[in-house]
Structure to design on (177 residues):
C-alpha cells in the first residue's frame, strides 16, 4: 500500500460526493434550556428584603416524599448591600414567613412545580448539612451549579444570606424531572 496517499486529492470522489446527509442546522442546548423549552424549569425569588442585625435571609424548597420529581439546581444568584455569607444547606427548618410560589420560566405555561417554598428572615433551625459556604462582598453574586445539586423526593434545600443588617436578595433557578 505504499502507492496510496493518506490524504485524498481534491479530484478524488470523497471530495465530490456528499458524505453527510444531515442538511438541517444543528441546534444544541444546555439541560436548563431543554427543561425551559419543555416547561420544566422554575424560578423563585425572595425579592429585595431588609434583614435586621443578627438575622439571615432564608429561602427553602422542599420536595415532598412521593412527588415523583427530582429538582436539579441550575443557579443561585442575588445581591447584598453589605458583606455577608451565602450558605447552602441540605435540610433545616424555617419557622414562620411566607410561602412564595415558584414561577415556570416557559412564560404562559400552566405546568406547576411540585416544590414547596418558604421564605423568612431569621435563623435556620433543625438538622441541616452544609453544602456550600461562600463569603460575599456587597454587590451581586451568581453561582452556576448546572444541576450539580440534586434534591430527590423527601429532601429539602435551604439557602441563607447573612448575618447582619442589610438588604439582600436570593434567586433560585432549577429544573424538575
Amino acid at each position: 500500500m505504499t502507492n496510496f496517499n493518506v490524504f485524498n486529492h481534491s479530484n478524488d470522489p470523497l471530495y465530490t460526493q456528499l458524505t453527510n446527509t444531515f442538511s438541517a442546522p444543528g441546534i444544541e442546548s444546555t439541560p436548563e434550556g431543554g427543561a425551559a423549552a419543555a416547561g420544566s424549569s422554575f424560578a423563585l425569588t425572595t425579592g429585595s428584603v431588609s434583614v435586621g442585625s443578627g438575622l439571615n435571609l432564608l429561602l427553602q424548597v422542599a420536595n415532598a416524599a412521593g412527588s415523583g420529581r427530582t429538582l436539579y439546581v441550575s443557579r443561585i444568584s442575588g445581591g447584598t448591600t453589605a458583606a455577608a455569607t451565602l450558605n447552602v444547606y441540605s435540610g433545616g427548618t424555617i419557622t414562620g414567613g411566607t410561602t412564595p410560589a415558584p414561577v415556570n420560566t416557559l412564560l404562559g405555561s400552566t405546568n406547576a412545580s411540585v416544590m414547596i417554598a418558604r421564605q423568612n428572615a431569621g435563623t435556620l433551625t433543625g438538622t441541616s448539612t452544609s453544602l456550600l459556604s461562600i463569603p460575599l462582598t456587597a454587590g451581586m453574586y451568581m453561582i452556576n451549579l448546572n444541576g450539580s445539586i440534586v434534591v430527590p423526593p423527601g429532601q429539602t434545600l435551604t439557602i441563607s444570606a447573612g448575618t447582619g443588617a442589610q438588604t439582600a436578595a436570593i434567586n433560585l433557578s432549577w429544573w424538575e424531572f
Summary: Helices lie at 31-37. The chain has one helix and twelve strands.
